[in-house]
Design brief:
With about 1200 residues, the chain is an alpha+beta fold. The chain contains 34 helices and 53 strands. A 9-stranded antiparallel β-sheet has the order 1-8-9-10-11-20-16-15-13. Helix 24 packs parallel to helix 28.
């Protein structure tokens, strides 16, 4: 410390040319301060060994630094488009195609997240804040507006430069195409950096963004480094920061519609020298104060609601800044002054384009800081101000932290001292990088294609942001699973979604059932401790009618005996009686970890144990209850199709536990919502379309008031959203009802039956009878047209086949089902046995399903019937035959007789009137005759069709692939597959996709999720050559950056196809990252690396491990090896000296290395690993497996 204080201003070094990112945190005198950043350095070396070696070489050098060349470039890494740290390089970023993306918004398990979105315009960050759109520091804007406004109302850097007698001004990153300015954007998994090297001003500007992990406050760090590239000294005056910072308490709606009025509530506090604690509303200096703020606190003065009760707002946003590594302090705290009044910088320029007040009306920043600032009734700014003289090659670095505090006291007492700790910014940067590396380590691989390896990690990161990252709480024995970091996919391009990222420990948000389900598909492959958690969660959320709620929320914890155990636990975990009482009250009700910590903090609970110990203790004493919300006016036709994926994934890792999990595990209940599907007599209506009378299916789902009443009565109960059964008394009061539950296999059988009962009037597709379409949301009009989907038919067949195979495996097993379901099964079987027309069959089965739904509308009777193994197999065989006939029949509507159609509509050509009319006075009708109508080809049809073809039928699989490639679904100019062929001539009634220009959004574009589904089915079907050929042009990491328009490691939701009228846009990607494509790729990854069924039962019915990768020879490195993480933790290396395609050969030898002792090795011959070694591998007792071909 003494040596550090003796130093003059340190010379900040940049490694290499424009060099590795961490280099500019090192100085020539770093040895004297290395202890302050030792922790960060250890983490950094582990994460960035190559860069660390470069820095070590620099630090050992005693030579003086030579300024970097003005023409130097970023040091290249895995390809010309990436640097040595794996960050995507985008040169001239602000003149490229506009794109939007985001930092992941994760604070770690023990931190508070902050969301932040960026664009390749201005200084990148276009919006950031806490929790949701209503908590912005920089207002959330849709992408089209963000592209326009990011450079103006976002982050700004304004400079006045004096070299001798010459004075110039500059705004780095501001003017597009500025002469002499070379700009580069570097994008990492959890960071964003901008670089401008300006030959006119001889200033190198760098801006680095990352969010702060592991702290009790959410924050974004902005690190600005300005370097003198000239040959003479420069005096540099800097005004840098945020042009608009929204005070806490605003919301997105008010900002958009009444922003000027809202400014009346806006205030900046914590500015006056006398203010030390909570704001003193009467202090005039907090409104107009001649000195700039050091630690401004931004919030509304009070609540904005027009109500009798006015509430004070305590929480607030903040901005603080300091110069990194200097002893020259602008204030006692070392903080830089912050200008909070934008007029003090821009003067009369309300566009905020030119800082007139800074550049023209004041002669120095000292003078600028004396300008009176109004700290109320306008949208404030947050500009840090500093002045330095830099010799050639010297730089100055501003560290700015923008965040949110629970109170002004927390800001002053806790947050600012933490931010000002030595090495804070460096440690948090390394922690941010290390965090995403840890979260994505489960899919680390080392192949000949470093882009493939990097793409896999990015896919896992984006996947877990929708599906969540599984945490294991409560200890090693029977850990409780809790998914963190999940949220619904909302961003600048998906502006329609209201995302939620809780500002709490173990942060998480809700998501859509389909999204969360599919994005957890490979969880058990990567985290085997999950076991059957996911399949149980999603099956639990199935209703008695086979539908599910839209919104899935993270499971809550509930103590087994809340009244007693809460007091016992609270006494053992707290320091005093008051804390014990407060904690006991919290533990008596359901809780989630993040909210529990927040509530405990608010209640002033003093713990005697660490937060982790506390959480593990209460989790181990609790059970988990799955939760969801019915938040929409209908049910999607396809959500259930992902349930079987969870079951098959579990079976691939735990085949020896399948029987117990399906038949003997704890029973699961039925979710219950007020949403109820109407019978046909109350949803088929007569309407006039184009001057003619016809029939449509409208208002097919309503909120049943009886259900809603029952749910309201039980809302305070932890099981209040599950359906009840009646006891023998028949009474419906609380004392005579109970939560009804069945085995998982029974739930799957119910799912199969209820979907089979939805076959359309032609016996082909599954009806869209509940207001919502299937996977393609943009076909939203199809339910109104009495639409049906062949994809769901294929999935029903797949489920029926799986059930048949499972019951055949366990011939002594039958299934107990609700008696009401038994009646439906009997009706379906009777109809199958009769010689009926398609219409007669449909009418009978539709009546049977309506009768079943009414019977279980409010309660199950509690009575059950048991089907024997033989009976189940006989029923399923009949179902399979009917479904196969439907698929075959649909091919008659195919243009080539090979590709299965995707969608049908059924026109009612004869009908009779019912006795009622709708609330719109539309007569209800009964259909007497239908005519099917097929829609153009959609890629989803053959994707699902491929899933029904036997894996050993290579001829049929190849025939379907070839037909798809020869069809108009294939976009030949791009070498990719469109979501559909031309929709020209189709009715606008089919859905919103008809409103879009062909090639854009869901109308004939390339939808990566469905394309990836297609590639996955090629891989599953053993069409390896076709798969790799498709990936060569269809995987983003293989695409040209100039065309794709963003990092090739990111999946956009859609790519503009050649159907779009502007060919300059062909191949451009939009709606980045959080999509189902990540789930499809991760499924490909586990298939490629380990095979579809790595664990299996031998002929002797014992567990064995048979790794069967599908790696092509070109993915092996020159030494004949390729490596990956198996089960997310075990290093597997394939040795392939002959460089063979692995699907053409089998392993001949395997060497296992113990995790506890790297010297203990076991060598096994043959392609499979037998017991006990197979189970030990699954239990993660080996650190390394070497497989030899």
């Amino acid at each position: 410390e003494k040596e550090r204080k003796k130093m003059a201003k340190p010379k900040y070094e940049v490694i290499g040319d424009e060099g590795p990112r961490h280099g500019y945190w090192r100085t020539k005198a770093a040895a004297a301060t290395v202890a302050a950043v030792a922790f960060a350095s250890v983490l950094f070396v582990a994460s960035h060994p190559q860069q660390a070696q470069q820095e070590a070489a620099l630090l050992s050098s005693s030579s003086s630094r030579t300024p970097p060349s003005k023409t130097s470039s970023v040091t290249k890494g895995i390809s010309k488009d990436f640097d040595v740290d794996g960050r995507f390089i985008l040169k001239n970023f602000d003149s490229r195609k506009p794109f939007a993306s985001f930092l992941p918004g994760i604070g770690g398990e023990w931190g508070m997240p902050m969301w932040s979105f960026y664009v390749n315009r201005g200084q990148g960050i276009a919006a950031f804040g806490v929790e949701n759109k209503d908590g912005p520091l920089l207002e959330f804007l849709p992408a089209n507006k963000a592209y326009q406004l990011a450079s103006m109302s976002g982050f700004r850097t304004m400079l006045r430069l004096t070299r001798g007698e010459k004075v110039t001004t500059a705004q780095p990153f501001f003017e597009p195409g500025e002469k002499g300015a070379a700009r580069t954007m570097l994008i990492g998994m959890n960071e964003l950096e901008l670089i401008e090297r300006n030959d006119v001003t001889d200033i190198d500007s760098r801006v680095l963004y990352y969010t702060v992990p592991g702290e009790e406050f959410p924050a974004l760090v902005r690190r600005v480094t300005l370097e003198n590239l000239g040959d003479d000294d420069v005096n540099i005056e800097v005004v840098d920061g945020l042009a608009r910072l929204e005070p806490f308490g605003v919301n997105a709606g008010f900002l958009a519609s009444m922003g000027r009025t809202l400014e009346g509530w806006m205030r900046v506090y914590n500015c006056a020298a006398s203010t030390d604690g909570e704001p003193f509303e009467g202090d005039k200096k907090d409104v107009a104060y001649e000195e700039a703020c050091l630690k401004p606190y931004y919030k509304l003065s009070a609540s904005t609601a027009d109500s009798a009760q006015v509430e004070m707002i305590i929480e607030g946003n903040f901005a603080v800044a300091y110069v990194e590594g200097e002893d020259i302090l602008e204030s006692e705290e070392g903080l830089l002054p912050i200008i909070v009044d934008p007029d003090a910088v821009f003067g009369e320029d309300t566009t905020m384009r030119t800082p007139f007040q800074f550049w023209e009306k004041t002669k120095s920043v000292t003078e600028l800081l004396k300008v009176n600032e109004l700290k109320a009734s306008k949208t404030p700014s947050a500009f840090a101000v500093v002045e330095r003289t830099l010799r050639p090659g010297e730089s100055v670095t501003l560290v700015e932290v923008y965040g949110h505090a629970l109170s002004q006291t927390q800001l002053n007492r806790d947050i600012i001292p933490k931010i000002m700790e030595e090495g804070f910014a460096a440690k948090k940067y390394v922690a941010a990088v290390d965090l995403v590396n840890r979260l994505t380590s489960a899919v680390e691989s080392s192949t000949s294609n470093a882009l493939f390896d990097a793409f896999s990690k990015q896919m896992l990161l984006d996947n877990l942001l929708r599906g969540g990252y599984p945490e294991f709480l409560g200890g090693e024995q029977e850990p409780r699973v809790y998914h963190t970091f999940s949220r619904i996919h909302g961003d600048l391009e998906r502006d329609y979604n209201n995302f939620q990222i809780d500002a709490s420990y173990f942060s998480q948000g809700s998501g859509n059932y389909r999204d969360v389900n599919q994005n957890r598909r490979v969880d058990v492959y990567l985290f085997p401790k999950l076991k059957d958690f996911n399949l149980r969660q999603f099956l639990t959320l199935k209703q008695a009618d086979g539908y599910n709620p839209l919104t899935v929320t993270t499971a809550v914890f509930l103590l087994r005996s809340p009244a007693e155990s809460s007091k016992t636990l609270a006494t053992a975990l707290t320091r005093d009686e008051a804390s014990a009482k407060a904690l006991a009250s919290l533990l008596e009700r359901p809780f989630r970890p993040g909210q529990l910590f927040t509530d405990a903090n608010d209640a002033g609970v003093n713990f005697t144990v660490t937060p982790k110990k506390f959480l593990d203790t209460v989790a181990a004493s609790a059970t988990q209850v799955f939760t969801a919300n019915y938040t929409h006016e209908g049910f999607w036709a396809d959500h259930w199709t992902y349930d079987l994926d969870q079951v098959e994934s579990f079976e691939a890792i735990y085949p020896d536990a399948l029987e117990f999990a399906m038949f003997d595990a704890e029973k699961i209940p039925f979710y219950m919502s007020a949403g109820t599907v109407q019978p046909r007599d109350f949803k088929y209506v007569e309407v006039t379309v184009d001057g003619e009378l016809t029939v449509r299916q409208y208002n097919a789902v309503y909120d049943d008031p009886d259900k809603a009443g029952q749910l309201d009565d039980r809302i305070t109960k932890p099981d209040g959203w599950f359906e009840l059964a009646l006891d023998e008394s028949g009474f419906t009061d609380e004392d005579h009802t109970y939560v009804y539950a069945v085995s998982p296999i029974s739930k799957l059988f119910l799912l199969c039956v209820t979907k089979f009962a939805l076959l359309d009037p032609s016996g082909m597709g599954i009806e869209m009878e509940a207001n919502k379409p299937g996977w393609n949301d943009a076909m939203n009009g199809l339910p109104g047209l009495l639409g049906s989907g062949m994809p769901e038919t294929c999935e029903t067949l797949r489920l029926a086949r799986w059930l048949s195979a499972t019951f055949a495996k366990f011939p002594k097993r039958g299934v107990a089902i609700p008696v009401e379901l038994g009646d439906l099964v009997d009706a379906l079987v009777d109809a199958l046995d009769d010689s009926l027309t398609d219409f007669q069959y449909w009418n009978i089965t539709a009546t049977a399903r309506e009768t079943y739904r009414y019977a279980v509308r409010l309660f199950f009777s509690g009575e059950e019937t048991t089907l024997s193994n033989d009976e189940v197999l006989e029923i399923l065989a009949k179902f399979e035959a009917k479904l196969e006939d439907g698929i075959k029949k649909s091919l008659a509507f195919s243009p080539d007789g090979v590709i299965m159609p995707t969608y049908f509509a059924h026109s009612v050509v004869e009908w009779e009137y019912a006795s009622y009319e709708s609330y719109l006075h539309q007569p209800f009708v009964r259909a007497l005759k239908f005519e099917p109508r097929v829609f153009p080809l959609f890629l989803e049809g053959p994707v699902r069709q491929l899933k029904t073809v036997k894996r050993d039928d290579g001829v049929t699989l190849a025939k379907i692939h070839d037909a798809v490639k020869a069809s108009k679904l294939y976009d030949e100019p791009l070498g990719q597959y469109k979501i559909c062929e031309s929709l020209e001539g189709q009715p606008f009634e089919m859905g919103r996709m008809m409103a879009f220009t062909p090639g854009w959004l869901e109308n004939e574009s390339i939808w990566l999720h469905m394309s990836f589904k297609f590639y996955l089915e090629l891989l599953r079907g053993g069409l390896y050559d076709q798969f790799w050929l498709a990936m060569a042009t269809g995987a983003p990491y293989n695409m040209k950056v100039e065309t794709y328009g963003r990092s090739p490691l990111e999946c956009g939701s859609f790519i503009v196809s050649s159907a779009y009228p502007d060919d300059n846009m062909w191949g451009s990607s939009f709606l980045a990252r959080l999509s189902g494509s990540t789930a499809e790729f991760l499924s490909m990854f586990v298939l490629l690396m380990a095979g579809a069924q790595p664990f299996r039962l031998s002929a002797a019915n014992t567990l064995e491990l048979a790794l069967q990768p599908a790696l092509p020879k070109f993915l092996f490195k020159k030494d004949g090896t390729a490596s990956f993480k198996f089960l997310g933790a075990v290093d597997v290396t394939y040795h392939n000296p002959g460089l063979l395609d692995t699907w053409t050969t089998l392993p001949v030898k395997t060497v296992l290395t113990k995790a506890t002792d790297g010297n203990e090795k076991t060598t096994l011959s043959g392609p499979a690993i037998p017991m006990p070694f197979s189970q030990e591998v699954r239990d993660l007792k080996y650190q390394q497996i070497d497989v030899y071909f």
